[in-house]
Amino acid sequence: MAIWGAIFHYMIGISFTLLFFLVYTTLIKFLKNKVLIGILYGVFIWVVMNLMVLPLTNAPPLSMNAKQIIIGNLILITMNRSATFIYSRQAFCGEFAKNHA
Question: What ranges do the domains of the chain cover?
Fold first, then answer.
């Protein structure tokens, strides 16, 4: 069962990363602040996971309070999305973009 959990975890993570790559060029046109894009995307991921995906699983429901929500979002925004932001910036602004334009 743990293997399936790991597989789904990575599938969901890769899906969110691919979605970010697809919407980044559109978002940067409207929101010039890259940090704001990362924060909003982190909040979006938290909402989708906690209000849509997790209720579909057999995991016991978690009691949420404002402190837990803020801490969860800060972890998502600062730790998990920082790698996506760095790699997407390299892809869109670096050698990859020059060679694949």
Answer: 2-99
Q: Which of 11, 37, 24 has the alpha carbon at shortest distance from 90?
A: 24
Q: Cβ of 80: how many Cβ atoms within 10 Å?
A: 15
Q: What contacts 58, CB < 8 A, 6 or more positions away?
A: none
pTM over 0.70: no
Task: For residue range 59-88, list pLDDT tens digits in order.
Answer: 787 777 888 888 877 877 776 666 666 666
Whose tokens are 């069962």? That residue is: 1
Q: How far apart are the first and last CA of the chain?
A: 43
Structure tokens at 21: 């790559």
